[in-house]
Specification:
Elements lengths: L1 E11 L5 H4 L4 E11 L5 E8 L9 H7 L3 H4 L5 H12 L4 E5 L2 H12 L1
Parallel strand pairs: 1-4
Antiparallel strand pairs: 1-2, 2-3
Amino acid sequence: MYHVVIDLEMNPINREYKEIRKKLTDEVIEIGAVKLNDSYEQISEFQCYVQPEYGQIKKHITRLTGITDETVKDKEPFVSSFRHFLDWIGDEETTIYSWSNSDIKQLRQECRL
């Protein structure tokens, strides 16, 4: 059995996307994770930037994370990035932990959208 700890970076969705904002206020711009074995030793890590679909990176997010529009301009959107993440996890039984409650909430909301 594996243990995966995720940490997401998010960016607020621009106000012009009113219908989307009813379901989602932020979108993932980076997925980071580590995979641990049964002894809780790190065996792998995952990192990918995600191109936002609903606006540019806000300045305060760049100051907080260092992620800019340039960083994500050629990256894949959330759906593709999340598939890569799931492929990285693999088929082995896995427990997923999040760095914060907001990360799990964000994943649920984006997957529903």
